[in-house]
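If you are new to this repository, start here. Below is one unmodified record pulled from the training split, so you can see the exact layout before writing a loader.
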Amino acid sequence: MLRGTTTTAGAVGAAIGGFTAAAAWVPTDLSGAGLTFTSVSGRYTRIGNMVFASAQLTFPVTADGSAIAISLPVAVPNLNYAQTPSILNINTGSATIYMAVPTKNTSGFSIINHTTGAAVINSGFATQTITVSIIYPAT
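And here is the target side for that same chain:
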């Protein structure tokens, strides 16, 4: 049970440095391969300086050997701490853990193998559906 004073989102936003209501976001391919994802859905919320983005998408069978790069709804600042990795959900049948990492000074993220630190290529996820939630600073 919540107790206390209720307020509107606008008042809360003003108190914490700006609030942008949740909005739709359609992740796109930034790898240069011209991939068209299917079953794409995404939402994000920006609260103050922080962006909370979640999405699900399916890679095409025609995925190539380029390193995965997928768009984010708000640009990532050119700061090392903006590259905080997030766990990525994918069912490849292996025990490999993948991380989604915002790429500083871009509007995208890459996917890396948690164990090796190596960038994952598009063809490695061909026909796979990924689900990701990323939290990163906007400035």
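Two things worth knowing about this chain: The chain has one domain: 9-137. The mean pLDDT is 87.
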